[in-house]
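Attaching the record inline, Q. Sequence:
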Amino acid sequence: MNSRRRFFKENALGVASLALPSMLTADGLCADINTADRTHHEPTAKNVIYMCQIGAPSQFDMFDRKPVLNERDGEELPQSFLDRVDFAQIKESNPKLMGTPYKFQQHGESGQWISELMPHTAGIVDELTFVHTCQAEDQNHMFAELHMSTGWKRFGRPSLGSWVLYGLGSESENLPGFMVLRSGMHPRSKGANYGPGFLPGTMQGTPLQSNGPPILNLGTPQGFSQQSQSATIDAVNALNRLKVRENADPDIETRIANYELAFKMQSSAPELLDLSGETRETLELYGISDPAQPSYARNCLLARRLVERGVRFVELFHGDWDHHTSIYQRLPGECKITDQASAALILDLKRNGLLDDTLVVWGGEFGRSSVAQKSLKPGEPVGRDHHVEAFTMWFAGGGVARGKSIGETDEIGFDATTDHWHIHDLHATFLHALGLDHKRLTYRHQGRDYRLTDVFGNVKTELFRS
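Structure, as predicted:
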């Protein structure tokens, strides 16, 4: 008589192969088109494109108009502020207020104030909501990046994209559900910004390389046929499935999933990066002169292509906006690199019918100060120090209100005078847009239920109200 134990022993490979698709779906690797049973409420978005501006863009020179700050340019920072400020680098005992040399004008039907540095963003303001009272905690770039990316100021926690993939799974059959694109400076806290932390390894963000192979170790070795490779992968995975039956190790399950997906990506990744099918008009919209050359603009176009192919979470990292010195010599260059392409992405998503389902986020890990930072080098122009109490981010698509400005700061832009939007609030609101309750999206680790927002965070529903 055949016992159940004997049946599973003799048919392990067949049973494992039947179970694999559902296992990979649960891990966010295989396509899972129906997410209704995964969400906690009706979502307003199903994908995210997050444009992370590394180094902290200066809100005073781009989005947060402060005429009084301009009038008081050169005055000492009032003692009431000086007594409680904690500068990152300024050592001067009496730093001076610094306005902006750039002209601001109102744009669109919504009348949003935008500086002359961002003419393309000015052209899409009626699609955006600006939040001027975002709040961070840590003045150090590395830990501020981690806080914005993982909800925690130290290494080891899952990233935002990993939590989203864990909660919703992927809609893509041939690409990872969480993809990362980088230009300019890479994040100071490196891969921790898109790492899975203690979540299963399949929740890891997959970076596309700017040069060489799009994804490392993806190509078929020379002299190795596709048929031989397929047979090798099948054999390796069969052995791995046997091991999983003996020892339910999530790392082995991750290895199986990676082999399966990597084989599919050998054709899907090169197709993704082939921009020959894009029209000249589209390339010009983004400001791409050479489609083969890595750039922020090319990454923005790739972000649209990734969302088209069902990738759940796309994260772009670009820098460096860390202008402690020579800000007016360096800031215009960063604006020129990012302004046109960021605006083009919104327009391109909209005309392709993707914007309504895609939450788009633009912002840095904190903002910059309203006082001048003097350089330690003689003759070097001034810059701006870090500022965590209030800074600006913008949002679009995915149910976000159009042509709206949220939050106000005082006349020198030092403090928020209306509701703060702490990083935990931002994360709670992102998850809410995707139909996930940040208090219910948890993962058991070392005897405790963890969540992205820890024990904090409030959903800012005004982001979605007109």
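Residues 278 and 396 are 24 Å apart (CA to CA). The two ends are 69 Å apart (CA to CA).

More tomorrow.
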